[in-house]
Amino acid sequence: MPSRAQKIRLGIFVMIGLLAIVSLIAFFTTNKYLQKTDTYYIAYQDVSVSGLEVGSPVKYLGIKVGTIKNISIAPEDVSRIIVKVALKPGTPVKEDARADIVSIGITGLKMIEIRGGSNASALLKEGDYITAGSSSITEEITGKAEVLAEKMERVLNNLQKFTQPENLDKITQMAERASASFEKMDAMISENRRGVQATVRSVTSIAVRLDTTSQLLYESVSRINQIVRSDTVEQILASTRDISRKLKEADLEQLIQELGEVVNRTNRLLIQIDHDLERGSLDFLSSMSQLKTTLENLNQASRLIEEDPSVLIRGTKFKSTPDEQLKRK
């Protein structure tokens, strides 16, 4: 349980804190309410002050010089709005200055900006009315309305010229001619519908082929360009230059003589091969004849053995055997 001395120290601390808070509040409120300002009034007639709030800034050519203190409706004229503003002391507000309502960014809030005022004009006294300017909204709406009215006037004038009797007759004739032209065109299209469709299909097919051909041509050109830029072409050209140089350096007469000798040798070799082939073919035919005779003798011997097996014991002699023919040769 806290002692009596602790309670006294706590009470003193709380009292000092409260006094400090009250002093700060009094300092700021006194500085705010006791600060000297110059009060002026602005009367807006049939102008919307939407967006203006108490405390909204008041600027003079972009410099903040005060705030709005009050906004009220004049009792004697309900279409008149009285705005009370408090400006810094010494703010030079001239009699020919005006107070415009302008927007603050895109927030929808408004402020008052004092503009104009010449050096030759006298200063307003505190409590006087500053000449009310226009609202940016009103100016925008008025400008758009004037532009719209001008455009409407042009449209009405053109419409009046357009609806004159001679113009209407021309328009009627033009419409009739256009209708007849459309009818003829419709009949022509109906008669040639199949031909037109076939032509369109042909054109489409040709377009597809041209597209394919152009694509292939593009790929071919790209490939040729790639080949031309590659090292292979350079190597081929270098090889061609080497061959040309070697041909120039070579003895062409001796080379031709050597080639002629090679051709003669080749010719003699072909003649010898042909002679050998001819002689070989004759030998081959003789061998085939002897083989045929041998097969016939074997066939005859096999028939004799089949008819009389005793021939194997007592033997027999064949006439004109292949061995005798070989001996005679």
Short structural summary:
With 329 residues, the chain is α/β, with parallel strands linked by helices. It contains eight helices and seven strands.
Description:
The structure is a single chain. By secondary structure, the protein is α/β, with parallel strands linked by helices. Among the domains are: 1-31; 36-142; 251-319. It has helices spanning 4-33, 136-162, 165-191, 193-229, 231-249, 252-307, 311-314, 322-328; strands at residues 38-45, 57-60, 63-73, 80-87, 97-103, 110-116, 129-135. It has a 7-stranded mixed barrel. The longest helix has 56 residues, at 252-307. The protein is elongated. It starts with a helix and ends with a helix. The model has no long low-confidence stretch (mean pLDDT 78).
Describe the biggest sheet?
Answer: 7 strands, mixed, barrel
Shape assignment:
elongated
How far is the N terminus from the C terminus? 160 Å
Low-confidence stretches: none
The overall pLDDT average reads 78
As a percent range, the share of helical residues equals: 55-70%
Strand numbers in spatial order across the main sheet: 1-4-3-2-6-5-7
Total number of beta strands:
7
- What is the N-to-C order of secondary-structure elements (H for helix, E for strand)? HEEEEEEEHHHHHHH
Radius of gyration: 64 Å
DSSP helix count? 8
Note the beta-strand portion.
15-25%
Q: Based on helices, strands and strand pairing, what is the structural class?
A: alpha/beta
